[in-house]
């Protein structure tokens, strides 16, 4: 230890208050930093990204929490796909049957044309042109609505009664017809793009 005399002045802070010389800093060392080593253990610091990566690679894949979280994620994806498909299906259905209400309102027009043609028996020759005109109007009307997917239900006298597209409004007994066959078509039925819009009202034969 080197003692300073009363006449000596510390040079560049080399001495402390008791006259002891400060140790010189070694090259590469920074003041205020201390490396501490306890036995063979060394402290390791990781960034947040490194911790997440370590968790994913080493810990989570085999733990129950990860498996449960993965199952929840897969269920959420499946539910999301199901909702998406349902919305697309509903949207397609809406587009497909967008004109259903309008076409349903037009059915009474067809009914009145059918009634007019059903009561043409016994008319004189002067009225035949009128009947022809009504029939042509009905055909043009049917062609127009057919372009939008509206078609008449198959219902003719002698055909078998089909509860899927026919509605029985009464029964009759006719020997020339078989049991459960259509004896009379009271009102024509219609389907819109394969979906029943209105069943055909018929009289059914019961032999």
From TrEMBL:
It is found in: Cytoplasm. InterPro entries: GrpE (IPR000740), GrpE_CC (IPR013805), GrpE_head (IPR009012). Keywords: Chaperone, Cytoplasm, Stress response. Participates actively in the response to hyperosmotic and heat shock by preventing the aggregation of stress-denatured proteins, in association with DnaK and GrpE. It is the nucleotide exchange factor for DnaK and may function as a thermosensor. Unfolded proteins bind initially to DnaJ; upon interaction with the DnaJ-bound protein, DnaK hydrolyzes its bound ATP, resulting in the formation of a stable complex. GrpE releases ADP from DnaK; ATP binding to DnaK triggers the release of the substrate protein, thus completing the reaction cycle. HAMAP family: GrpE. Belongs to the GrpE family. Homodimer. This is Protein GrpE.
